[in-house]
Structures are given as C-alpha cells and as structure tokens.
User: Which sequence fits this backbone?
C-alpha cells in the first residue's frame, strides 16, 4: 500500500497507464486484478480488523472482477464471504468473467442481488467503478440504496464509490457513501472535488506495483498541492530583515456595514508575513479599525483619486472584501485597476468584473461557485458539474490565475498543471473565510511570491489552518478569525 500521491488522473488516463504497463512491462490485466484483490483485502483488514463476515457486491465490469478476486482471497483466509451479483452476469467483461470462474472454483456461491442485505461486519462496493458516466438505474440503483441503508456497517469502495464520476466528482443521483475508498493505478481527480469528498470517506491508494517509468509517459490532469514542494518560498528570514523587506499589502474594501471583511483580509495578509498592511475603506470605519488592530494602517477613502498615493507605496493589493457595488465601490474598483501591481480580485470586485469583463495577466481571481457562474455567465450547477473545466474557462477568459474555491479548491494559470487543495472542512462554510483567503494570498504577493506560488501556497495555508482550527475546537461554529493563529504557525512551517 502506498501513500496517496499528488498527481491526479482521469478514468481514461488510468486505462492508458494500465495499457502502458501491459505493453511495455508485460503486466497483464489479470495480474493487476489479482494485485487489486490482495490490496483490497489488506485495506479491509485495516478498516475492520475484527471482521469475520464480508458482503461483496460485484457489478459486470472490471470493478466487479476486482470484487470477485477480493472475495476469493478472503474466502481462502477463512472469512465468511457472501457475494452478490449486481447486473446481468452475461454482460460481464472477459477479465471479470475469469475472476468469477476462479471464485466459483473455490466452492464459493454467487447469489443474485436482493434488496435486503444480510447482516455482516463489512460491505465491499465493487459495483460500478471509474467507468460510470450516467445515473445508476434499476438493480444498480437499488444496490447503492441498500448499501447506504446499512448505516452501521463500514463500507469499502473499490476504485471509487459507485455513482461518482471519476473525472468530475459529481454524484449521478444515488452514490455509495463509503467509509474508505481504495483507488488503483491512477489517483482520480473526482475523489477530491465536486461531490467526491462527500462520498469517498478516507482515500487509500495502490499503484499495484506499476513501474514509476510508466507514469512518466503521461501528463496528469492535475496535481494536489504539497507544502513540501509548493512552500519552498516560506524560508526562514534573515536575522537582519526589516519590514521593508517583506512588502506592503493594501486592502481595498470596507463599504458601509462591511468593514469586517476588509479588516479580516488585512489580518490574513499580516499573519502570513506582510511587512506592512494598509486598509482603504470608508472614512467612518477608519478610527475603529485603528483602535481594534493598530498594526493595520487604516485610511478613510471617499474619492477614487485618494487611492493613488496608497497604491504607489504598496507592493500588492486586494480589492473586493466588503467593497459593495455602489458608486463609491465602482470608483475605487476602476482606480485600482489602473495600477500595474499584482492584485487579488475577490468578492464584489469579481461581481463588478463580471459586468464588464477584462483580461489581465497580473491578477489572481478567487471566485466561489456563485461568483464563478457570474464570471462565466452560466449556472452554478454548470460550474459544479465540471469544476476543472470551469476554472480553466475563467482563466482563459480573464487571464492571470484563477482560483475556484470550494471543496477541492482548484488553481489554474493556463500554463502549468491545474493544482488542487485537498485541505479544508465544512466548518469553513461560514462568513469571512473568503476574505481571509484573499488577504493570505495578497500577503504572499506583497512578499514577492509569483502569482501561481502565492495562490497555491495561500490556498494550502488557508485550508490547513481551517483543519487545525477544526481539530482544536470542532467544525461547527468555526469563525474566520479562528484561522489566524494557525496561519501564523503554518506560515513559519511550524507543524
């Protein structure tokens, strides 16, 4: 069993990897299936070490073949194994048929699927696998529903929970709610974005001993962020460093009633190391901001031209948190865009941008799915149905770096591999989290991080801080400001 890798692939790419392994290293499909069964048995023991009885539901594709192979090996180790065939056995693939026959040769019986599942210690989902591209119907749908109704029984899904698209992560109607998902050969993008994280449980991976040279022949579709590589710029500071060495971040926003958004963004930037941090907001907010957080230089701005001296002294800026969309907001927005500084576009800045699309190479756009839908003039459903495609379209239309927030945040600059963050949790679904993220990315830009590095490291630090806060005090009731002390630790690589 290998650690979960960082490179991500589509279902078709996984099949390509298997084909390369077969053609160049003479690793047959049947051998891969044998290895998959063995890996599944190891995972089963990990998931439920005291299990004695196992129910394996097998479909008609190669995923079902993996299930048959697991059942055969489990029976040989004296587990009480019950096997159910889901779907017409006459439609089994050639390799799945061979695995089924090997299982029958051991004396095991294969039962037709019945809605009422027997009581067992663990259920194995080997029904549909990564090839699904439509909603499960008939017996398949009934099998998925029956698995999910066995709520107290742990579920091991082979490759991917049945009903989940391996490429997009969307759930086609019903999908298996797995406790653990064991993915093979090419780690699938859909496990980490879209609906995938809701269904996959804990993800395990096994390459099935495919040589590393095989993977060098195929460019992944995306890559998960890792601070070990992406955080290389978070180096210890020189003992002679001073605030001028670490950049000046300007946050533009904080309209009437929304000063908190601008302040949170500014604090996010300061906590990841911006040397100086300023806020340009409504004049009525400035005294209170200075009182509550004197380290942030708060400036009351009522006219767009008042932004010019602030922009001239900044190294990067964030526009949008609490900005609004009134005349004041539009004036500051337009004046900000006159600058050539690297910029993070967030919140209402994105809404203003969607009304008058522009293309720039020196900005980072950070939309949530609703803002992404407005930027692309489509529905939120369309964005979420293929998040990878959506983030690419945003980047192509607007330039710079696009960050599509949500479970499995995606980052694309039009050149490098799309990056994915697998950190974060539902506790972060609360107001202000996006403001903190915008400030974090802006703080890294101010320190001289290139756009893509700032986006990737910023998203990683933000998600990891959220996970730390959840571990400390739980997910429910988490506030955006709860991330700040953890951000400081993580920005210093204190784990």
Assistant:
């Amino acid at each position: 069993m290998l650690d979960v890798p960082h490179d991500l692939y589509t279902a078709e790419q996984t099949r390509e990897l298997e084909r390369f392994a077969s053609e160049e290293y003479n690793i047959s499909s049947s051998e891969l299936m044998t290895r998959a069964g063995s890996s599944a048995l190891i995972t089963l023991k990990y998931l439920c070490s005291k299990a004695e009885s196992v129910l394996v539901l097998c479909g008609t594709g190669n995923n079902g073949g993996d299930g048959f192979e697991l059942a055969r090996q489990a029976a040989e180790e004296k587990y009480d194994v019950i096997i159910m065939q889901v779907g017409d056995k006459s439609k089994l693939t050639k390799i799945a048929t061979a695995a089924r026959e090997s299982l029958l040769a051991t004396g095991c019986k294969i039962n037709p699927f019945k809605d009422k599942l027997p009581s067992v210690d663990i259920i194995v989902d080997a029904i549909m696998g990564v090839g699904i591209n439509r909603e499960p119907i008939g017996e398949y749908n009934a099998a998925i529903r029956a698995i999910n109704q066995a709520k107290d029984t742990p579920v091991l899904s082979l490759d991917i929970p049945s009903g989940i698209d391996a490429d997009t992560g969307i759930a086609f109607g019903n999908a298996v709610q797995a406790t653990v998902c064991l993915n093979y050969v090419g780690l699938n993008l859909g496990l980490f974005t879209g609906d995938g994280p809701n269904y996959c449980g804990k993800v395990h991976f096994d390459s099935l001993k495919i040589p590393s040279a095989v993977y060098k022949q195929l460019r992944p579709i995306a890559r998960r962020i890792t601070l070990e590589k992406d955080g290389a710029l978070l180096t210890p500071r020189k003992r002679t460093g001073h605030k001028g060495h670490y950049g000046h971040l300007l946050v533009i926003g904080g309209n009437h009633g929304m000063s908190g958004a601008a302040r949170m963004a500014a604090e996010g930037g300061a906590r990841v190391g911006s040397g100086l941090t300023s806020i340009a907001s409504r004049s009525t907010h400035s005294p209170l901001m200075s009182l509550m957080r004197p380290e942030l230089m708060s400036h009351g701005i009522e006219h767009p031209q008042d932004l010019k001296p602030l922009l001239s002294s900044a190294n990067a800026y964030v526009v949008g948190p609490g900005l609004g969309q009134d005349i004041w907001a539009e004036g500051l927005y337009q004046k900000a865009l006159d600058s050539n500084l690297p910029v993070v576009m967030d919140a209402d800045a994105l809404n203003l941008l969607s009304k008058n699309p522009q293309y720039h190479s020196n900005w980072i756009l950070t939309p949530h799915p609703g803002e992404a839908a407005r930027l692309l003039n489509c529905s939120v459903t369309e964005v979420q149905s293929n998040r990878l495609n959506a983030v690419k379209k945003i980047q192509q239309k607007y330039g710079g770096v696009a960050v599509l927030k949500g479970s499995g945040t995606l980052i694309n600059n039009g050149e490098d591999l799309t990056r994915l963050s697998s950190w974060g949790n539902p506790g972060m679904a609360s107001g202000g989290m996006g403001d903190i993220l915008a400030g974090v990315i802006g703080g890294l830009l101010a320190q001289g991080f290139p756009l893509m590095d700032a986006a990737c490291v910023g998203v990683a630090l933000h998600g990891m801080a959220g996970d730390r806060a959840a571990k400390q005090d739980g997910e429910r009731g988490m506030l955006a400001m709860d991330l700040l002390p953890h951000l400081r630790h993580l920005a210093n690589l204190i784990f």
